[in-house]
Amino acid sequence: MDMKSQYKGVIDLNCDLGESFGRYTLGDDTAMMELITSANVACGFHAGDPVVMQRTVSLAIAHGINIGAHPGYPDLQGFGRRTLSMTQEELRAMILYQLGALQSFARTIGVPLRHVKPHGALYNTAARDERVAEAIAQAVLDFDPSLMLLTLPGSALAQAARALGLRVIKEGFADRTYQADGTLVPRSHPNALITDAATVAARAVRMVTQHKVTAVTGEEISMQVETLCVHGDTPDAMGITQAVRQALEGTGVRIIPLGR
Amino acid sequence: MDMKSQYKGVIDLNCDLGESFGRYTLGDDTAMMELITSANVACGFHAGDPVVMQRTVSLAIAHGINIGAHPGYPDLQGFGRRTLSMTQEELRAMILYQLGALQSFARTIGVPLRHVKPHGALYNTAARDERVAEAIAQAVLDFDPSLMLLTLPGSALAQAARALGLRVIKEGFADRTYQADGTLVPRSHPNALITDAATVAARAVRMVTQHKVTAVTGEEISMQVETLCVHGDTPDAMGITQAVRQALEGTGVRIIPLGR
Amino acid sequence: MDMKSQYKGVIDLNCDLGESFGRYTLGDDTAMMELITSANVACGFHAGDPVVMQRTVSLAIAHGINIGAHPGYPDLQGFGRRTLSMTQEELRAMILYQLGALQSFARTIGVPLRHVKPHGALYNTAARDERVAEAIAQAVLDFDPSLMLLTLPGSALAQAARALGLRVIKEGFADRTYQADGTLVPRSHPNALITDAATVAARAVRMVTQHKVTAVTGEEISMQVETLCVHGDTPDAMGITQAVRQALEGTGVRIIPLGR
Amino acid sequence: MDMKSQYKGVIDLNCDLGESFGRYTLGDDTAMMELITSANVACGFHAGDPVVMQRTVSLAIAHGINIGAHPGYPDLQGFGRRTLSMTQEELRAMILYQLGALQSFARTIGVPLRHVKPHGALYNTAARDERVAEAIAQAVLDFDPSLMLLTLPGSALAQAARALGLRVIKEGFADRTYQADGTLVPRSHPNALITDAATVAARAVRMVTQHKVTAVTGEEISMQVETLCVHGDTPDAMGITQAVRQALEGTGVRIIPLGR
Fold it and tell me: Is residue A49 situated within a structural domain?
């Protein structure tokens, strides 16, 4: 009997980590790493500093989870959530810089980077702007064509990455609301975030097992995902993530790192 | 017959490059690359930005010269010439970050980093402060033990690097004055820089062929060097460097990249 | 007899100055101050640092020219020429911060700030985006309602500033090309800048004495201006500015600081 | 009968506030403002951003407490706790820049800055380095000679400020340990901070009413202070500060803002 047949599906749980900076602590990375399978590590532009990066990579290795790069706009004050108009040359070089910086900490310890996920405004801009998407995909390809690229299904970045032969990983957000077209409701909207643990968990289960999610405007939309993003910097982040894990496992979903 | 016997010695000429930033241009990197054999490329902390780094690495490759990392303190306003008190953990992580960032541009094109040379205040502090020297040497070792480390002969960094088994390259400065103990006269002193091309060239020849230099206080001091640093951001930088090259070659010194 | 009747008009010549940063020098501020009547001093966000600001203010006072603030986006790498999406609260606070910082150097010497001119992408965004325009105008009003605000005639910023009772100064660009709607051709276009001194001078004279300029697409457009912007960071900046001055004065136009 | 005779002394309670930055929150400024009489507001270099500054000043005004500037080294990653070697010109300009930036938010609302207190490494360096002390005192004098300058009693900054005629306020630290010479035990030492509320409160009372404190090495040292610093970013900051307040008031010490 095939072991996999027992499972209702497999999913990766990813979380943005290493977003502390100097004296400032954000989230509880150690606790979160107990619950997830892939860490998106900030690279010093929107968050993170070299010491934080070093510690986050070490911590992720100790937890046996995947390490990926989480590059963002050079905007610490805005936490990478403000779009900056950049040329393709600037974008590509900025991504290469951040990937290399993070890689340095991973290679020192002897583990590979597994994936790349753009942060915040860069993620959102790359989802709809082909020019930005191309620059990011090209940088990832040039850096290491074996890296998986996490994006919103159907996004410009997904298209640009596939066109270059990169492996695209479709990402869902359990605690964010969606618009009817499958894009995320912007954070500036009051109902962008879902904070009730049970609701988030139920949405996660539905996305993973039924490949569906209800848009903020009520429509049922298709949502095929290979990884689910959970957030570590919201109130009760741990409670929500634990609820998601338990609900998924209780339904028979296996939670394993991408590509393993 | 041994070809090398025709030569009065061999020397590498290194120069700090890629120190432009955004709208700001510093030095004429293209012209300088015609004259030198090793480029120390700024890594975005004291100078350089990702686009400048990308272009500088491409340019160096086109000129067939060695590419090395030139990490500095995180202080663009002070151009890395102001000492910042940092812990060893901060120093090591800061060096790893910068090495990785630069590496990213080199590996994308398929060339290796050959050497590391700390910049400005970091170079000077590492020459006399064992704690700083150790952190830098450890970072270089952890990143890539085959990297050559350029330092002042007899410096704390030379000792720390050798203790870790790194290959240390002894560096001389043709256009800087020395104190009797072999350390550089600080830039804040009026006679720290020599700006007369013929004088600089004569000192270069003497260092390379006779292994001696005259200190600012008149003493003859021993100065065994494997690479000479020339500067690209001084007035008549090209004229001085051309004079150095011609004088060396006229004396029968061969100018070749380190480790080749 | 009215002295003014001898003149074909009066105009102020303004220039962005104090845009050096640390080791990086941009433009020849001392030479430019001989030729202009109003200095727009960078405030440390897109260019300038505290030492540069101190020196620029001192220099401007020594030349007897008006000192104004030239606030920009917090983006040194992009020289303030990249738009950053910011909330109105962020914009207003950012402007207040920069105005206060510059004011500090002016008040120390006992001279007032006379005007404000947003820089680069902030200038352009404020010309068309009411939300950005309002935030800037509100900050200027809150800081000092007697400050003159330099803007593109007909811009959103001109409207927002007038609505708040601020004194708006209509600005023309002698060395930039215009679109048929009176907005500037973006710098990314190849013909955005005019570099021929005689052409720039002739356009300046025409704008000041006939209140007209020819758009890049050939149309004659009306262009009422009270100040002309000249640039200090282009090749032959001095030659162009001297040509503008001579052409204006030769035509009988009086060049005097705004508000005097 | 003299009302003051009822009191065992008067003291100001000051706290470093406005040290959040962008997405990062540090301390609970609103709660702390209920307990203190003077706010030292970060100015954007070691902590704080324009929006945080605006909000902190508004909050301080609403609480009726004194607003002072808390300038620091340009080092967000190090939270201003790392010394940076700077020239006197750089130091003076850096202080003027930060004072002006903060002043902008205070003047917009119509309240004055009352005092200046350097932050972290700048405070400590100014306590022992005459050159740094002079540059800071000169900047404060040039900016506004009526500003009070908070320093360690007997420090180089106290001397430099008095020599220029500034009003010096002697500051004590209830939750930091002292060395026998009256300087603070550096934060890098394990016993630099006292975290027991009752102990901190008892030390505060003793400093204010008996003008004495016990050094970390056991000596009784004289400690005349006009303001006590409490910290908002330590665990149980509120509990400690409440204990200090209650102990002081219970002893008959009046807690009022400086200069009122």
Answer: yes
Q: Please report, in tens digits, the pLDDT of each residue of chain D (260 residues total).
A: 344 556 788 999 999 999 999 999 999 999 999 999 999 999 999 999 999 999 999 999 999 999 999 999 999 999 999 999 999 999 999 999 999 999 999 999 999 999 999 999 999 999 999 999 999 999 999 999 999 999 999 999 999 999 999 999 999 998 999 999 999 998 889 999 999 999 999 999 999 999 999 999 999 999 999 999 999 888 889 999 999 999 999 999 999 999 88
Q: Please give the Cα distance from D192 to A194 (Å, whole number).
A: 43
**Cβ-Cβ contacts under 8 Å for D69 (sequence gap 6 or more):** D40, D41, D43, D98, D99, D102, D103, D113, D115, D116, D117
DSSP-assigned letters across all residues of A173-224: ETTB-B-TTSPBPPTTSTTSB---HHHHHHHHHHHHHH-EEE-TTS-EEE--
Q: Which chains sit next to B, with 3 or more Cβ pairs under 8 A?
A: A, C, D
As a three-state string, the secondary structure of C116-137 is ECCCHHHHHHHHHCHHHHHHHH
Helix, strand and coil in chain A, % to nearest 5: 40, 20, 40
CB spacing of B77 vs D74 below 8 angstroms? yes
- Quick one: DSSP state of residue B178? B
Query: C87 in a domain, yes or no?
Result: yes
Measure CB to CB from residue B78 to each of C22, C26, C79 and give the nearest one.
C22
For residue C220, the SS3 value is strand
Task: Give the alpha-carbon dihedral of C56, C57, C58, C60, to 10 degrees.
Answer: 80
Question: C143, D104: Cβ pair inside 8 Å?
Answer: yes
CATH of the domain at A242: 3.20.20.370
- Name the DSSP class of B109: H
- Check residue A47 and report its DSSP letter: S
Write the CB contacts of C87 (distance below 8 Å, at least 6 apart in sequence). Answer: none
Q: Is this prediction's pTM over 0.90?
A: yes
Contact D50 C99 (CB under 8 A): no
What is the number of other CB atoms lying within 10 angstroms of the CB of residue B96?
A: 25
- Rg of chain C's alpha carbons, rounded to an integer? 17
- In the chain, the amino acid numbered C29 is D
Measure the CA–CA gap between C17 and C48, rounded to whole angstroms. Answer: 9
In a domain, residue C212? The reply is yes
Nearest to C113 by CA among C96, C97, C100, C126: C100
Tokens linked to A126: 């790359």
Q: Show the domain range for B47.
A: 8-255
Single-letter code of the amino acid located at A34: E
CB D200 within 8 A of CB D159: no
Residue D157 φ/ψ, nearest 5 degrees: -70, -40
Between the two ends of chain D, the Cα-to-Cα distance in Å is 21
Give me the residue label for tokens 């000249």.
C230
**Number of domains observed in the structure of chain C:** 1
Residue D99 and residue C96: Cβ atoms within 8 Å? no
Q: Give C94's contacts in chain D (Cβ within 8 Å).
A: 50
* A1 domain residue, yes or no: no
pLDDT in tens, C164-201: 999 999 999 989 999 999 999 988 899 999 999 999 99
What is the full DSSP assignment across D97-123?
HHHHHHHHHHHHHT----EE---HHHH
Collect all residues of chain A within an 8 Å Cβ-Cβ radius of residue B69: none
Please check whether residue B84 is in contact with residue D82, taking contact to mean a CB–CB distance below 8 angstroms: yes
